[in-house]
Amino acid sequence: MDPVRRRRMRRMRWRLSTDDRTRNYGPIEVPTIGFADHERVAAHFWSYMVDRSVRFLPERLAPVFFSTLVEAIAHGADPAAYRAGLVVLGRLYRRFGLFPYHGTVIAAALVATVRRFAGESWVPESARMWEQGCFRVLRLAEQSAEMLGDGPQVTFGVVESVVSAGADLAVVTVRPVRRLHYLPGDALPVCSPRLPGWWRWLSPANAPRPDGTVEFHIRAIPGGAVSPVLVGQVVAGELLWLGPTCEVGLSTAAAGDVDLLLAAGGTGLAPLRAVVEQLAASPVRRRVTVVVGARNLPDLCDAAGLDGLRRAHGDWLTVVSASSDDDVDPVAAGGLLGVVLHHYEPGQAVYVCGPPQLIEEARTWLLVGGVAPGDLHLAVTFRHGFDVVSWASRQRCADTTTTTTTAVDAAGGGDCRVGDVP
């Protein structure tokens, strides 16, 4: 690596790391603001700035901006969720053309709003903590905006259907009010206004469709804050907030035209299914093996969809299930990564997506098992500094590729969590 690139990577690591250096002030006690009150609270925040002739923020986006800012200041224990919020703020920061001097009035509006609605939780030291936290998060948002460049904006989507696919699994179909420009394998922050500001990464389970609809496969994680709401409470007709799409390490462009081995655990299958749909429409034909892991066969995500793809493209697509179920082939009973190594052939590009634990194990054991480092592509978890740096270095290129691909598809007449969500 040349010295200039090494210095840039070091700066990026310092800027985008999600360790304690970026959260010097610790967590702040957030006042309890119910869903029914949240829009009124956000309206107060917006009105404070408008009264001072600061009109950069459209009223319809005030709840998005305010709640995301509050959550980024007050929480941040989950690195992936923290990064999702900063991506949203970064895109809004760039969209509205903000500058550092805007931070003064934003911080004043935030402190005034929280003071008014905090009730007994407000103490004399609260004003300083919220103000310092606001300046800190806005600095990170500015850096995120610089890193992201131009690209997909924050938008809204209407839930068209929520279909149960198991005891704790749902397929949520969303129609964005503005078409989402993404490539299969991308992920985007998603938030329900039922939990304003609580962003989680989700990956579309389909390649871009002519009607613009997007499927998300979501499993309700026991003890999770967001996934049980998305699976069990959100209904058709509701709005969801949709952040900008990002490349998270699953782009097949990095593999060229070689054969692929795709390994998925849990709902990590969603972006890889989208990749298979993309490959099915491509004129370049290659051998593709999909290895899907589940606790048992009934827990297998999107079994029917996988079976349909296998039947339609059996000449080049192989699907293998790795499960502890006694009905599964003995080779598959050795665990997901064992099955991956059994099917791996030198020269294949290996993609792995699923829960963070699976990614961590794959990072070690697949390399030990003989997978060449250049052939291994892991979904980003944001739990390590090098994950964040690698992800950040791809975003500008990914935005350019997405825009170009969409333009080409449009000219031809069509449009073109990583893992389980807590």
Q: How do the helices and strands line up, and which of them pair or pack?
A:
Layout: H1 3-16, H2 35-51, H3 62-74, H4 79-95, H5 102-118, H6 126-148, E1 155-166, E2 169-176, E3 188-191, E4 200-202, E5 214-219, H7 227-232, E6 239-242, E7 260-265, H8 269-280, E8 288-294, H9 303-312, E9 317-323, H10 336-343, E10 349-353, H11 356-368, E11 376-378, H12 385-411
Helix pairs in contact: 1-12, 2-3, 2-5, 3-4, 3-6, 4-6, 5-6
Structural features, described:
There is one protein chain. By secondary structure, the protein is of the alpha/beta class. Helices cover about 40% and strands about 15% of the residues. It is built from twelve helices and eleven strands. The protein has a six-stranded antiparallel sheet. A hairpin with a 2-residue loop joins strand 1 and strand 2 (about 170-175). Helix 2 (about 35-50) packs across helix 3 (about 60-75). The longest helix is centred in the last third of the chain and has 27 residues, at about 385-410. The chain is elongated. Mean pLDDT is about 80; it is low at about 5-25, about 330-335 and about 405-415.
Arithmetic mean pLDDT: 82
Trace the largest sheet across and list its strands.
Answer: 4-3-6-1-2-5
Could you give the distance between the termini?
37 Å
Poorly predicted parts: 3-26, 328-333, 403-417
Structural class: alpha/beta
How helix-rich are the residues, as a percent range?
A: 40-55%
The biggest sheet, with number of strands, parallel, antiparallel or mixed sense and barrel status, is: 6 strands, antiparallel
Shape annotation: elongated
* SSE pattern: HHHHHHEEEEEHEEHEHEHEHEH
Tally the helices: what do you get? 12
- In total, the number of strands is 11
Radius of gyration: 22 Å
Strand content: 15-25%
